[in-house]
TrEMBL record:
UniProt GO molecular function: CCA tRNA nucleotidyltransferase activity
SUPFAM superfamilies (alphabetical): Nucleotidyltransferase (SSF81301), Poly A polymerase C-terminal region-like (SSF81891)
Lineage: superkingdom: Bacteria
Keywords from the UniProt entry: ATP-binding, Coiled coil, Magnesium, Metal-binding, Nucleotide-binding, Nucleotidyltransferase, RNA repair, RNA-binding, Transferase, tRNA processing
Protein name as catalogued: CCA tRNA nucleotidyltransferase
Domain HD/PDEase stretches: 280-441
EC number, as in UniProt: 2.7.7.72
Catalytic EC class: transferase
SMART domains, sorted: HDc
The species this protein was found in: Actinotalea lenta
Length: 504
């Protein structure tokens, strides 16, 4: 029987992408077409795949080009060596070889084209052994089979080169137009093959502004325990990519709502403290997401003090209150307190980031910002001395500009008068910091005498006493500001006489 069902009418969004697709297919770098011709001449298929194709349809330029090929890795390496000015073995065991074609001068009157960087991977499928944390690589035979093993349909797009035939076996372009995140095969099968795809789903909701297909959301909830086989380093890398998107909030909400955060970042869902009927404290989870959004808005351009996206600031904004659940106390009279939650939070931040294998510098910076994020709140209640301002700057050290932004972002009150009062107080603090910095070079505060001078004045050898004297002079510098050498020496001798000639 003939099929008399009407042909679906493409949506305006799909038509727009299809028109853009035509432009994409005709604007590929000539070097990419040349590479495709080389593979074709050798009897192999080559196709541009995945993110670069997706991003091109979205009007986003990709600096690197990813290809899939029917050629085995050894043959790929040979062809890339002939095509490129440099090539490297990214991971031959995974079938991937990279190459770079250096920039060539443009035609007369045209600017030179930039370098072309490619990665070419043999058709493959990634699968996990149930007891292993590492993917098992199996090479495939067809482009469609390779695309079927991609994480989502919007990444299962390809353009064959040099013929420029568009390949979309799973309706990824229509999903892209609809803003729908769907898997090429059953979601449970896809996530079973590579559980990290569940975290990628969260990232793409933020990065691409997409929503989860119901099958994807249900599979994530059902399979959260499967993420435990993925290494901490891979989880960390995916979390970092999410945090560096323009608006990580939707992705973080997906992690929490599906239960994935309970496995990879449990301190975040733990912030969902129940709110009592008297609303004695705000929702700490929603507050933290709002602080993150506000901190991102305060990042600067590349020439500013905190160029965005800044991972340290964003992690600190998200995690600054994770000490609250452990320190919450219901006080007599109906109040709620979180005494010293900044100290508890700093320890929890360091523990979690170390578990995720973050580098030492990032761990220390985020923990320090967490520890310091409440320091300002006494400023508006009573005027700080110059000494207190100096200590604030010195304790923050190179994190001061981030601390400025974290502290300002931490104000999420709906009380306009309170918000304006806090903003004014911090404006005043920053003005005083600028004034003292101009006078005293705050960023490089040191005692007025160094260790060698201390030993010479007191006639003592190196040892713990020199450190005690140094700390005394540093405290004095904080309290009184810069002193001339004679004043510093007089104060040091007075300190020494109080401690006895033996320094005891």
């Amino acid at each position: 029987m003939p099929d008399h069902r009407p042909t679906p009418v493409p949506s305006p969004e799909l038509l727009a992408l299809q028109r853009r697709a035509a432009d994409v297919l005709t604007s590929l770098a000539p070097e990419a077409l040349e590479l495709g011709a080389a593979f074709e001449a050798a009897g192999h298929e080559l196709a541009l795949v995945g993110g670069p194709v997706r991003d091109a349809f979205l009007g986003r330029a990709s600096t690197d080009l990813d290809f899939a090929t029917s050629a085995p890795p050894q043959e790929t390496e040979r062809l890339l060596a002939a095509w490129g000015d440099a090539h490297w073995d990214i991971g031959k065991e995974f079938g991937t070889i990279g190459a770079r074609r250096f920039a060539r001068p443009g035609a007369q009157g045209r600017p030179a084209r930039s370098d072309v960087v490619v990665e070419v991977t043999t058709y493959r499928s990634d699968e996990y052994d149930p007891a292993s944390r590492k993917p098992v690589v199996a090479f495939g035979h067809t482009l469609e089979g390779d695309l079927s093993r991609r994480d989502f349909t919007v990444n299962a797009l390809a353009v064959r080169v040099p013929s420029l035939v568009f390949v979309d076996p799973f309706g990824g372009l229509a999903d892209l137009a609809a803003g729908l995140l769907r898997t090429p095969v059953g979601a449970q099968q896809s996530f079973d093959d590579d559980p990290l795809r569940m975290m990628r789903a969260a990232r793409f909701t933020a990065q691409l502004g997409m929503r989860l297909h119901p099958d994807v959301g249900e599979a994530m909830v059902a399979m959260v325990d499967r993420i435990s086989i993925v290494s901490a380093e891979r989880v960390r890398d995916e979390l970092v990519k999410l945090m560096l998107t323009p608006d990580p909030r939707p992705g973080l909400e997906v992690l929490v709502d599906t239960g994935l955060a309970d496995r990879v970042l449990p301190e975040l869902p733990a912030l969902r403290l129940e709110i009592d009927e008297h609303h004695r404290h705000k929702d700490v989870y929603q507050h933290s997401l709002t602080v993150l959004t506000q901190a991102i808005a305060m990042e600067t351009g590349p020439d500013g003090p905190v160029p965005g996206p800044d991972l340290v600031l964003r992690l600190a904004a998200l995690l600054h209150d994770i000490g609250k659940p452990a320190t919450r106390r219901f006080e007599p009279g109906g109040g709620v307190s979180f005494h010293h939650h900044e100290m508890a939070g700093a320890k929890l931040v360091a523990k979690r980031l170390r578990a995720l294998r973050f580098d030492k510098e990032t761990v220390q910076a985020v923990a320090r910002l967490t520890e310091l994020h409440l320091r300002f709140h006494g400023y508006g209640e009573q005027a700080w001395t110059d000494s207190a301002v100096r200590r604030y700057v010195t304790d923050a050290g190179p994190l001061l500009e981030r601390l400025h932004r974290l502290t300002r972002s931490d104000c999420t009150t709906r009380n306009r008068r309170k918000a304006e009062r806090l903003s004014f107080a911090y404006d005043d603090l920053e003005a005083r910091i600028a004034e003292l910095r101009e006078q005293e070079e705050l960023a490089a505060i040191r005692p007025d005498l160094d260790g060698q001078q201390i030993m010479a004045i007191l006639g003592i050898p190196p040892g713990p006493v020199v450190g005690e004297a140094y700390r005394f002079l540093l405290d004095l510098r904080m309290e009184r500001g810069p002193q001339d050498p004679e004043e510093a020496e007089r104060a040091l001798r007075e300190w020494w006489s109080r401690h006895g000639s033996g320094g005891s």
